[in-house]
Amino acid sequence: MNLSVSNLQGAAMSDAPNSELEPLLDIRDLRIEFRGKSETVVAVPKLSISVRPGESYGLVGESGCGKSTTAMAIMGYLGNTGVIAGGSIRFDGKELVGARERELRAIRGRRIAMVYQDPMSALNPVKTIGSQLAEVPLLHLGSTKAEAMEMAAAMLDDVRLPDAGDMLKRYPHQLSGGQQQRVVIAMALLARPSLLLLDEPTTGLDVTVEAAVIDLIGELRRRYSTSLLFISHNLGLIAETCDRVGIMYSGEMVEEGTTGDLFRRPRHPYTQGLIDCIPDIGSGKHSRALAAIPGHIPLPQERPVGCFFAPRCAGFTAGLCDNPGLALTEAGADHLVRCARWPEMERSIRSLPVERAQVVPKEEAIALSDVTKLYRIGADKTVKANEAVSFGARKAEIVALVGESGCGKSTLARIVTGLDSATSGSIRMAGENIAELQARQRPRDMLQSIQMIFQNPDSTLNPSHSAAFSIRRSIKKFGIRKGKAAIEERVRELLEMVRLSPTVADRKPNQLSGGQKQRIAIARAFAADPSLIVADEPVSALDVSVQAAVVTLLLDIQKEKHTTMLFISHDLALVRHVADKVVVMYLGKVMEQGTVEEVFGRGTHPYTEALISAIRSPNLDEAPRERIRLTGETPSPVNVPAGCRFATRCHRKVGAICDTVAPPIRQMSETHQIACHIEEERLRAELPIYVLATGGNE
Amino acid sequence: MSKFLLKRLIMMLLTMLCASFLVFAVCEFTPGSVARKSLGPFATQQQVDILSEKLKANDPLIVRYGRWLGVLVGAIPDPLQDPSTGLNFKDPRGAQYFGNFGYSTLNKLPVNDVIWSRLGNTAILAGLAFLLIVPLSIIFGILSGLKEGGVLDRTLSVICITFTSIPEFASGVFLVTLFVILWPVLPGTSPLNNDGGWAVPYQFVLPVAVLVIYDFGYVARMIRVSMIGVMERPYIRTAVLKGMSTRRMVLGHALRNGMIAPFTVLLLQINFLISGVVVTELVFAYPGFGRLILDASLFGDIATLEAATLITVAVAVVTQLLGDLGYMLLDPRIRVK
Amino acid sequence: MAVQDNIDGIKVAAAKRAARPNWMRIFHSKTAIVGLFLVVFWVAAAVLAPVLPLPSPTDSDVMAMGNPFPSATHWLGTDILGRDVLARLIFGARTVLFVAPLSVAVAMIVGIAMGMVAGYYGGWIDTLISRFSDIVLAFPVLVIYVILIANIGPSVLNIVIATTIASSPGIGRITRGLVLGLKEQEYIAAAKLRAESTLYIMLVELLPNCRSLLIVDACLRIGYTIITIGILGFLGLGLPPPNPDWGGMVKESVTVLNVWPLMSLIPSAALVSLVLGFNLLADGMREAWKP
């Protein structure tokens, strides 16, 4: 059976932990410093957290807030330069700060265990899964080798990994990301610790895989009554999995409370800002603007006196907010806030006046028809990266390409821009077929009209050159301006367009933040004045608040210049906000395409359903009707299933026909197509996953 | 696997062919001809010319190379051993057999009589040196790499870097001054016989020491780099946070991963020790393979030089192959798909 | 075992450091300073050689022949032919500090070109270049030198040729490895999208990012080439007399080692100190430029 549904309605899974019990983990006034050769950095000035037995506590914050550092401090693993300079960490009554190495070793892995962000590198590549798992009971439970292996096998069953006996002998690189993370979880829970620290455990995993892993964690923790300290930057995830939440900002706790209370009535302006940065399922760019928190997170030496958030806060009041010694105050039952003016800080719901939906010109900007890309590896194997992909984009339209890893969206992006060439098919733009033309074969004006924004801000700029170097080259190569002065002026204009000060131009990339680098990447892409921009996960690597700012910027520029955009992303909430049209891909083929309302609305492809149901929102009233859990793994693109590619995992499989025959295209409307064996009427009959509260859909 | 080995074997043969041809070509530049060298400096030019005719020494390069190859595989007899040349070069194994490296014009003996014993001598030297280099470099490398920047690391690193700056003749000169002249406990030459009054085992001490001093530092640095890389990997953190003591973590995780790359480097040292030790052999008058190459090069004894080249290349390729096989064995990412 | 991602403050300091020209960072390392001192010492000696008040390195002082002990006219004594040892040392530095860096520079150019082409294009070009490199690398370096120099004769040009042949495959391999990693970076794709030529991409986008590693390697190679030149001299394959040659000096005095060990030890020590200088400098640079 492929169907596995858990009816979780929104928020906190409070099994009502008894708040009178002694806290399991009690951190008081923790101060963490990093002592370098010449400078000392205070990562965490004064932090207090307590986690009760059986409770799940979420620690949220953006980069540099100190949440991971805190986890490492609990484990006593701060590296050569890290020092706990003050405060206490009590675990089950025992003081961990200053404890002897031997005591810490007895606790690590046994009473407190950890799950890491990148499971592939957390596992030793040259040792078998079995031997790595068995180390835990051998170390802590005094088992014999045979007993340890048995326990390991039993644990693999618990984490739902099939064929435990075989799995024990395998090596980490033979497993998929999701499977590796399950192994890490198994390793952590083997000795039945009382506290599990999870540091971004699902970042980097596909959404459907993430959903399954989160489920697993929830199930296991209930079974073993483990407390969780769940660290993440993903507000939606925390909102749905944790009992209590703490929001950290620049090393400080700014708000803390039960999940339900905090997300429904956030008190601190930063929390409010964060929640507002996240796109929601019900509305797109025409009805809501993402909040932008101006400024940037202060580095430890830039922290102002008093409230750290003050320089960025609209409600800043001199005299109140810059008083030293600003403490956490009660803002309700079990709800603490560090804000001098919290009673007055009301959350403003940002919504734009409902615009007339823009009249999109009818002319086609680019049309893909049957684009196929095959790679030959070895003598007989073929990787089908893309097969028969067809869709089009009209001028000034934003078409989003969605899918998980292995779906071929990045390959397609490379083909459209010319970094790769298609094996067959056509891509028509301005009358030319560019599908099989690589960048160096394309005429100059064609190259100029298609530009790209890349995913990783750390590698998008050449570290040996100044930040604006590639912008200048682009202007020069395409002859947009001639002469040094004119080029410099254009650079200044472009930087202004992306809201960067002109002094940034001559800095080296390693002196800039991720958001700044990505803005430069945007400026570079627009420098050539292209008519089509391919944006490949342009904001995935950025902090939440920075994502919102960059996305808004991109949308503004696109609107003004009427640029067509191909927006590639795995983040469906973002896609809902940004796109006019959506194309859903799975394993190289298009599963569904249509306008954004159609794809997010009623009657969608089963895979789209599963993707949408995996979206997690901090808006607790926005709950999916049901959570669809896909079983199994995405097949390898070398061995694509015959028939419908999604058949092996589909929860609404019709029957054997799905495995053998390729699905027909169901034309649901003039703009909406679904490739599925389910008949149109039955598809239409399915309710949308998200029943929207306001029904404010256009 | 067998396909892989077959492919490597073919590559090896190809490499040997190419290398030997290149050496043949380079030897073109040497003054003096085979005929002259065979007859010696006192023969008249006329005699030399006649012999050159007989040996067809004026044929184009390719032909002469082909002829040499033919002699090697036993397809044709060695022209130098043809009794009609009057040279009286005799090879007890016959004039035509597989593995006939020809006749050494320098030593006036069949190459096969000269080369193998010399190779054997160097092999002993290399073996002894290798036995010392392996443990020394591993210890130095691991201790340095475990805690980068620590006191131990800095001290050991300086020692290693200093030793790699001391070429063999420098350390040879220094050690000889110390242990032979100032404080005569060791022999100054190692001709591998008892003529000098020193027992043979003593004759190995200084040459081995010189080799070890120069080489172990380099390998230790390689191991250090590998260990540092491993210690930074996240799976070390995983091991520690599972509650492992440092000792267990190092033995169970760090070493296992850290020694994969250095394994190849260590094997490649065999390569260096067999063929690159000419200086040591010269300093200590050790009758070894390196000196053979030097003498053959200086004299222009093509037959010996070619034979030495083939052996050198074979040793190099085999050690490379062993290194790759070892890598496959140690790193499952390569071994298993 | 540093908790890298969260040491933001130290990252700021690092960024500030990076803003300074990266040559300055070398001075933080003690090993680099010692190395630099040694190298500068010998370079100064070599450069100033003609103007220093030294007796001629090639004239034999018949009166003081074979006297290795310091005296008023000969501060480090004379060698067996009566030539002033100190002068020969300093002029020998001149030779070696001219030939070694020159050879390495040429080898670098050839090697980097090979590695760039092999790494960037891949395919059959890569296979061809790599196979060829494998053949050359199959020979121990010294054997290459011996065979070549013995056959084509010792001269500066020939040493440069020999070094290029022996060293460029190794340099090529390093460059190739770097390029293989770098060419997948997004800024390379961005360059392709603005119709930059391959040559431009190699020289302007790729090469600067290989700089620090290649400079460290070049420094090490200069050290190694100095050793090789010394060995060639010791084997009698050095530059022809009367060029003073440290290896040659050792060779000449080894025959009288049991009587005058100092004569051999002095040039040996000179060579070791110079090579040590380069090695320490390279190590310091590597430490300073670690990413």
UniProtKB/TrEMBL annotation, chain C:
Q: Does the keyword Membrane apply?
A: yes
Listed SUPFAM superfamilies = MetI-like
GO CC annotation terms, alphabetical: plasma membrane
Q: List where in the cell it is found.
A: Cell membrane
State which residue ranges cross the membrane: 32-52, 72-91, 98-122, 142-166, 218-239, 259-282
Q: What biological-process terms (Gene Ontology) are attached?
A: transmembrane transport
Q: What Gene3D superfamilies does its record include?
A: MetI-like
Similarity field: Belongs to the binding-protein-dependent transport system permease family.
Please give the name of this protein.
Answer: Peptide/nickel transport system permease protein
